[in-house]
From TrEMBL:
Protein name: Addiction module antidote protein, HigA family
Superkingdom of origin: Bacteria
Alphabetical keyword list: DNA-binding
A molecular function GO annotation: DNA binding
SUPFAM superfamilies per UniProt: lambda repressor-like DNA-binding domains
Organism expressing this protein natively: Komagataeibacter xylinus (Gluconacetobacter xylinus)
Family annotation (InterPro entries): Lambda_DNA-bd_dom_sf, Toxin_antidote_HigA
Length: 90
């Protein structure tokens, strides 16, 4: 495994969902939003990395995708920690 570049912000979970996970799911945005119990607008904001993955949403994502909430919580925390340590607004 390659070492992580500490000068590069970790990927926001919404980016991973937008680019890889949801396209592979075969579901469209309204179906995903409904399955997660959120509005299409909230889903759009998450996928655009304007909204964080909350613990509640991480649980819902984990149930929908079958991988548990931990991945999503860790990804969001890594993203938030990097942004905070580099004095960037979330």
């Amino acid at each position: 495994m390659m070492p992580r570049d500490i000068n590069h912000c970790p990927t926001h979970p919404g980016e991973l969902l937008r680019m890889d996970v949801f396209p592979a799911s075969g579901m469209n945005a309204p179906e995903i939003a409904q399955a997660l119990g959120i509005s299409c607008q909230s889903l759009d904001e998450l996928l655009a990395a304007r909204k964080p993955v909350t613990p509640d949403l991480a649980e819902r994502l984990g149930q929908l995708l079958g991988n548990g909430p931990g991945l999503w919580i860790r990804m969001q925390a890594a993203h938030d920690d990097w942004r905070a340590s580099h004095n960037n607004a979330p």
